Amino acid sequence: METIEEMCHEEKVDFIKDAVAMADRLRKFLETKTDVDISTQPALEDQSLDFSDVEQLLGSINTIPVPSAPVINPQAPNSATGSSVRVCWSLYSDDTVESYQLSYRPVRDSSPGKDQAEFTMTVKETYCLVINLVPNTQYEFWVTAQNRAGVSPASECAVYMTAPSPPIIKSKEIRSCEEAALICWESGNLNPVDSYTVELIQAETPEASGVTESVVGIPTCEALVQLQPQQTYTIYVRALNVGGPSARSEPATVHTTGSYFRLNQHTCHPWLTISEDGLTAVRSERKTSAREPPPRSTRFSRCVAVMGTLIPVRGRHYWEVEVDERLDYTVGVSFEDVPKQEDLGTNSLSWCMRHTWASPRHKYEFLHNKMTPDIRITVSPRKIGILLDYENSKLSFFNVDISQHLYTFTCQLPQFVHPCFSLEKPGCLKIHNGISMPKHVTFY
């Protein structure tokens, strides 16, 4: 303890000595006069820091450029329906894009100075499904890209086309036989289409198994389709253009149990009336109407006759005509350009069976170029069967009720012929077609 007290006493003595010396120096400094004003240079007083270069550098780092013009793609196959089209484009750069503006307008023939209405829509992706369009119509599309820096230049324009409207099958003009059918339809579109497709489904084929056969690339509004005999087909038609196929038409039914045709109104004499189904011709007591249409080159003007529609398939065709025993009539075939001012059978372009009745006598003639063989028919037919055989160049007539062969023409037929019918007195005749040939007919 004594040692410690001695050490502390020595340190206190040393500290007091140092403090007295420091107080003497401070007293001397305070007694001395000193100029404490600090002179400053004007340059330092007016100088301020310039951060513009730094700000410009930071701005260049954070600013993005305006996008470059997008490139719109050509229309892809099957990319459209009748009311919509899928439009695609690309951006060949690393530009930042926040959205796109897609604009379009219909392409139509218009007078100079008349602009078509334009439509614009904003999208985020590089594709867009545009809806509520008109079928089978061309539309002009262009696109711009935009971000917070601005809007890009517009792309080049591209023409897209909507798919066509479904065709309309002319059911009443369908003709068929055991090997084929001629299908006719209306386009259903104001603008031309590229082609048509006929789809066939057999009646025995389940709907789930789809189309039995398709005929593609048809350029016109009709097609002759090869079919299997003794079958029933459901037929659809589609129209196609660059945008894709249309929806299916309404279905039509075709039977290949025999030849099927209708009476052609365009060839009908004004005194004849054709039924709605096109299978009955009626001549009334009144010969003329108050407003009888003027004669045309396609209509019969002297002979009160009508043609059936053309059967454009070489092979064997059979149909039957139901008549009254006291009816004056003519039935047979003729070329399309048969003279309409002459009676059937009086020229080289028609082959016919004619019946005239003057009580109590029935007279039957088989006429071609005014020539007829001397043939007697003892049993008057009420239903006449007609067999047209292109391959063997024959035209045969039968009494259906008693399975009797009446007469056969041997005739050269370099072109297709039409069934033809005439009524010399008031009455009616009815056609039965689309029926199988009876056994007694197959031998001729």
UniProtKB/TrEMBL annotation:
Keywords: Coiled coil. InterPro entries: B30.2/SPRY (IPR001870), B30.2/SPRY_sf (IPR043136), Butyrophylin_SPRY (IPR003879), ConA-like_dom_sf (IPR013320), E3_ligase_FN3/SPRY (IPR050617), FN3_dom (IPR003961), FN3_sf (IPR036116), Ig-like_fold (IPR013783). Residues 70-165, 166-259 form the Fibronectin type-III domain. It comes from the Eukaryota. Residues 241-440 form the B30.2/SPRY domain. SMART domains: FN3 (SM00060), SPRY (SM00449). It holds the Pfam family SPRY. PANTHER family: E3 UBIQUITIN-PROTEIN LIGASE TRIM36-RELATED, FIBRONECTIN TYPE III AND SPRY DOMAIN-CONTAINING PROTEIN 2. This is Fibronectin type III and SPRY domain-containing protein 2. It comes from Hipposideros armiger (Great Himalayan leaf-nosed bat). The lineage of its organism: Eukaryota, Metazoa, Chordata, Craniata, Vertebrata.
